[in-house]
Amino acid sequence: MRRRLSYRPALGGLVFVIGVLVLVMAVVWRPSNLLIWAVGTAVGMIVVSGLASGAMMIALRVRRLVPRDARVGQPLVLQYEVRNASWIWPAFAVSIRESALGPSQGWLVSVGPGERCVVELAWWPQQRGEVQLSDVIAQSAFPFGLVGKRVTWRQRATITVLPRVVRVPAPRLRALLDRGPAGQRAASRPGHGEEFFGVRDAPELTSLRDVAWRRSASREQLAVIERASPSYPRLRIVLNLSEPTDALAARVPAGVDARQREEDAITLAASLASSAITLGHEVSLRVHGLPCAPMPAAGGVRHLDRLLVQLAKLDLDAPRATAMVSGPGDERSATVVIHPGRIDPSIGGAAAIHQSAAQLQSLSSRQGSAA
Amino acid sequence: MTMPRAMQALILVTAMLSLSAFCIADDSFVFLSFSLVAAALSGVLSQGARPRRLPTLVAHSIIASLVAAAAVSAFLAGRPPDVGQVGFLCGTALVIKLFARHRAADERHVLALGSILLLVAALDGTDVLAGLPLVLGSLLMPVCAAAAWVQSSTERAAAAHAARIPSGALPVAFEPTVGTSPMRSWTGFAIASVIVTAICGVLVFLGFPRQGLEGETWSRTRAGGFSLRVSLASDERIEDSRTEVMTVRWIGPDDVAIEHSEPLHLRGAVFDRYDPISQSWQVPQQPRREYVEGDGAAFVPFVDSGIDARFQVYRQVVQMRGLATNQVFSVLAPISIQAASGMSVALDQSTMLLSSASSRIGEFDRYAVAVKPYASDRDMTLLSGGFVEPGPLPTFPVAGVQPLALELWEQWKPRGRMVPDLEEAARRPAARWERNRAVATALESALLSGDYRYTTDLGSIVRRRGEDPIVNFLASSRQGHCQYFASALCAMCQSMGVDARVVAGFIALEYDAAQLQYIVRSSNAHAWVEVRTGDAQWTTFDGTPPTTLEALQAEQRSWADGLRWLWDPLNFAWTRHVVSFDVQAQAELADRMASTREALSRPVRAVREALDAVRQRLVETFSGLVGSLWLVSIGMVLAASIVVVVLLRGRRRRTAPLLGPGASPRERELTRHYLDALRIARRLGALRRPGMTPFDVAAALAVRSPEAAMHLRSVVEGFYAVRFGGRPATAERCSAAARSLMALRRTRTL
Asked: Is the pLDDT of residue B145 over 70?
């Protein structure tokens, strides 16, 4: 963590110095000891400005706390631990900002000598991807705004900005899933589902409903029926980004940004995945055209996070591969293929459902964004 | 009280101090009472759950109307508003802004207006009553400015935060971070700021170059009050301050304090030559001085023998109040002085002026002078150091004065009595003195006739470019203050060959019958004329209408005069040490500092000599091989000690962030083991990434070395039990952690 201190002259300081010079001229023009006292206090203000802010900024220590992932359109609150290492001087009116995040800043009104506190900086990411954080800047022109002081700490970190997620309504999602062979099935393990799994001996009677009467009668021992554990439907999302952006630009209607279409496709994939996992489905992901490891079907929040991180890391400027990504097929999954531009029915098999990125507009305009 | 509330209150107090300083400096007590009540009311109204404030638009409209009215008034009057009017305008605007404090910008406006008021007070005020709020306000001003800056920058940060929220995005509330004890921090800053500002103010005050005013007190250069200059070049309004300059007890020949039959003309300066270029009167050259030393009790005569001190001798006992000066004010003619022992007083024998020979301004604050108002020609000759040969008949350098003087002379000369002409006056001194008296009497009568008006406001007088102010006074404007009357009378006399000079000082008009003493105020500063009417005789002629002066004096009298005994001593000290601090006092201070430095340098020199002796002894001791070995050994021990101290401090600093203050040595030891264990794990390849707990690190280490992971977990558990589990840091726990750490050090990865 390297630290650098720099000074920035402010217009207010220049005006103040000119004012003091005018005051000195006034003293020469019309001698008065009380005017000289006024000059002295003005000089005192300059000294206080230098002493107070210099001592305060030198003693300040700022450390970025571990940032979590962000999401496009949603605020990310970054936290900084600010410690005042001075045992004498308090610090006032300090702004904390990141060199990589533009003008967003956290504000510290006061921190006493030897105190530490946490400053929060809110940032609204506008684009998915990885943001490299580099410099943390603490800046202040306390106490009078005469000279701005800035301390910079080099603290490298990376924030992954997840793609925007639009809530897909459950009926619409079910309509998509019902069109494929993604019906509910039984897992090969005992559970509490409806499907039959097997019969086993039961030392005690649990429920009359579960008694396998015929087997019990033939074996003259009480046997009960075991139910299979339910398995949730699977959704296979295939994101077709095999077409380069330039080629796509030639195909999309005039006035439509091809890169935005690709981003919309990614958003649609993220939205489908998020909504499906929220409903308890298992989702797998494959990306055609860009280097991205296929993600097997799974459910749960952690899987969704991994999936969104994969989508966030997609680099649309990378060269596109035309070869299809091969992976284990799952005939019992509903497959949704998402295309940024024109639909290519050759991808995803005969039963696949093809969605265009343009459909995101209708989805979001009807439901609004949420996640 | 919350921090913003405290800052608002502080700004209000500073604004009230600024108003007080200005109003007292300007003697505007009505405005002072009105503005202070209004300011206090604004403070009450703006507090509470439902503060009532004036809308900003209304406040700004009122202020703009006031500025426009002042501008129109100044335009109609044909001259720019003076400093006092600017002060009134700023004071009114400040009071209005106090009722319209919505944002930090309004607080800044209040402070800016307050600063202007303080500057105006610094220009106008010399009283301690104006000075104290001025000094206090100027010391508080930096604290208030910092408070307003914190407030405004926080408002700006909040506005910038609101502007950065994208449309339609989920907003995040602006939550500035405040430490645990902001008021305590702010109080500390405020105290430090006031101290630093005060130190800088005092240093600048003491060290600011005050060139070109040697021999004068700083305050006396002002247009009002007593001055060692009589200049007619300025057209400023002279001040009518009620500051008590001194009290004079006039004791008659029968040792009873009485009121004199005429106003006392207390002489302070004499001018005999007029410079038409600078339009000012010049002091006589080559004064002849006679020095006497006070002995504390008795009157010390200025002339050893010859003066009859038995008849017509009055004593004036002077107590200086508000003016610190080296001048000794006295009625003509002083014959002896009673002063403190060791005090040296100089008598200028050519002008009969007294002054203190001390370099310390205002030290001569109480004295008694024996005077003979009706001294004989012989006494005056003795006091003048012998017969003074009458020189050639004087002339006046401005040609336009003589025709005017002759015109008045023709009009007011005595009828039925022969007045010697110029030729006879030049030939025969007695005729000269007779002519001098006659001409001066006639011209004085002309000025007192009512054709000339007394005024302190010279702004309305129209003067042509290049026209001499005396000619302007006599020919066209016919109005002015005492310096104009005295200058005109002296100029006319000199133009007609009469030996005359201008005298500046104070005229004592106000007699306090209860205290049996005259009270001389700053507004009693006066100028008059003395005309030579004998070989060593000078007679006072005053062209200023006495009725006007008395009316002015009565007009300025107020109820507050009865309370002046309370603060007059304070005012005197203030004037002596602050207002009158000039180049002479600076020089004296520098001398005193030099002597102090000399006194301080003596022990320093002694210490240095002792160190030299020790060094010499060391050189003798450590010379040769044995000495060198000794030296190397001591150096090594010192270096080792430094290394140990640095290591101990480093270890302590390493554990401090995890433990906080007040940790026991065992807790620190356990923490060190914990940190060392994590360091060894990193060396073994188990990096601790952000978000990983020490147990995650142990799990990562288990892939490489299960044994090492077990030891690491043991150390971490021991530390966690003490740090977060509330268990005591026992010796067993420490030794167990140490053992695990040793084992961890010995392990090898797979």
From this structure: yes
Whether residue A271 sits in one domain with residue A190: no
Nearest to B193 among A27, A48, A77 (CB): A48
User: Does residue A149 sit in the same domain as residue A268?
Assistant: no
- How many domains does the structure of chain A reveal? 3
CB contact under 8 Å between A93 and B166, yes or no, is no
Residues B578-609: tens digit of each pLDDT: 877 777 778 878 888 888 888 888 889 899 99
Chain A contact probe: residue of B86, B204, B653, B659 with most A CBs at under 10 A: B204
Query: What is the 8-class DSSP label of residue B477?
Result: I
ipTM over 0.85 threshold: no
Interchain CB distance below 8 Å, A117 and B161:
no
The phi-psi region of residue B255 (left if phi > 0; otherwise alpha if psi is between -120 and 50; otherwise beta) is left
Q: Pairing mode, if any, of strands B327-328 and B353-356?
A: antiparallel
Helix (H) or strand (E) holding A30: none
Q: How many CA atoms lie within 13 A of A346 on its CB side?
A: 5
Concatenating the DSSP letter of every residue in A307-334 gives HHHHHHT--TTSPPP-SPPP----TTEE
Chain-chain contact of B189 with A52 (C-beta, under 8 angstroms): yes
Question: Which chain B residues contact residue A26 at CB under 8 A?
Answer: 119, 123
Residues of B (691-720) whose Cβ lies below 8 Å from A: 691
From chain B, the residues in CB contact with A33 under 8 A are 205, 218-219, 578-581
Other residues' Cβ atoms within 10 Å of the Cβ of residue B368? 17
Q: Determine the pLDDT at residue B591.
A: 84
- For residue A246, what are the domain limits? 170-182+233-367
Same domain, A174 and A193: no
The structural domains of chain B, with segments of one domain joined by +, span: 3-158+186-207, 220-581, 663-746
- Give the pLDDT mean for A340-362: 81
Write out pLDDT tens, residues B80-106.
788 888 899 999 999 999 998 888 888
Residues of A in contact with B200 (CB under 8 A): 40-41, 43-44, 47
Residues in chain B with CB shorter than 8 Å from the CB of A20 are none
The answer, for B161 touching chain A at a CB cutoff of 8 Å, is: yes
Q: Is A265 on the interface with B (CB under 8 A)?
A: no
Question: Is residue A81 located within the same domain as residue A98?
Answer: yes
Residue B454 bridge partners (DSSP): B480
pLDDT at B219 over 50: no
Check residue B637 and give its pLDDT: 95
pTM to 2 decimals?
A: 0.65
Cα B737 to Cα B711: distance, rounded to the nearest angstrom: 9
Give me the pLDDT at residue B750, please: 54
- With contacts defined as CB-CB under 8 Å, which chain B residues touch A84? 179
Kindly state whether A90 is in contact with chain B, defined as any CB-CB distance less than 8 angstroms: yes
A36 and A74, same domain (yes or no):
yes
Work out the number of other CB atoms within 10 angstroms of the CB of residue B458. 20
Condensed to tens digits (0 to 9), the pLDDT of residues A122-167 reads: 999 888 998 999 999 999 988 888 888 899 999 888 899 999 888 8
Give the residue on B whose Cα is nearest the Cα of A16. B112
pLDDT surpassing 80 at residue B236: no
| B237 touches A at CB < 8 Å | no
Cis check for the bond before A143: say yes or no (omega within 30 of 0). yes
Is A194 found in the same domain as A254? no
Residues from chain A contacting residue B158 (CB–CB below 8 Å): 107
Write down the pLDDT at residue B213.
44
